[in-house]
Here is the input.
Amino acid sequence: MDIQNQKIKIGISSCLLGNNVRYDGGHKYDSWLVEILGAWVEYIPTCPEVGCGLPVPREAMRLVGESDQPRLLTQKTMIDHTERMQEWAEKQVAKLQAEDLCGFVFKSQSPSSGMERVKVYPAKGGAASKTGVGIFAKAFLDANPLLPCEEEGRLHDPGLRENFIERIFIMQHWRNLMANKPKPGDLVEFHTHLKLMMMAHSPAHYKIMGKLVAAAALMPFDKVLEEYFELLMTASKKSATPSKHQNVLLHILGYFKKELTAEEKAELIGLIDQFKAGLLPLIVPVTMFNHYVKKYDKAYLAGQHYLNLHPAELKLRNHC
Ligand code: SF4
Here is the structure.
């Protein structure tokens, strides 16, 4: 099935969907997550505080103690909910493993759901340090170190948003590959489709991944898949800089040596230069190339995720 017709499963902090699960009975509805990204994904909501049995409304909580092992305490009455939350989190993380999630969006700053920079208060009082991780988020991240995960606030940054969405789509491709019990030939094909995408993120990783795929016959295939997946997700997380995109775009231009006139090539090079200089969004040269890919029936390029990974409606690559 075309990946753009599949609903990608994403875990999410329940209050971001507009569910009234917060300590004060409210929510933290995020319109972009619900109305835009929500059209392409199936959200699996989790509210750790309600999930572990606390009521709505409830007393607010915070992290107290050491940053690496804080306690989860109610703010005024100092009731310690750490064990209750940890026990529930362990079960919930195991339950979520069965969902084959392609990512998770966490609510920032929460002592239960925050992914990073959550306030931790010293046990003896004083100013908080922004060094904690929410108790549920930590359990989930420890069990899923390679899964694309972000906080809702960071997703308002166009570059971080683009990177997260690319990663969840790549993850879905990976899940599809694994669901079909792949053979070495399937991995070769998977790797081929990713070439330009990986060149934009990390050419060094792409090289190592290529060597691994080439050596697949020499080692247990399970091990190859495991190592490949780790390289894939590590590479995808690296930011695709304008210079790396420029290299990829010039590489694509090389496939049209015979078809394009000198003027058409000059026009494309001009667009690439303007993109590199921050004067045009990436979508402009990419759209031009997609036009030529169709016009000249370039099957290899048409199969490249770099040119068509995510739906146009998400309006990615539209920023300078
Ligand atoms: S931040 Fe997490 S624990 Fe708090 S209301 Fe939202 S989902 Fe529940």
Summary: The pocket of iron/sulfur cluster is lined by residues 13-15, 21-22, 47-49, 107, 110, 112-113 (CB under 6 Å). Residues 234 and 270 are 32 Å apart (CA to CA).
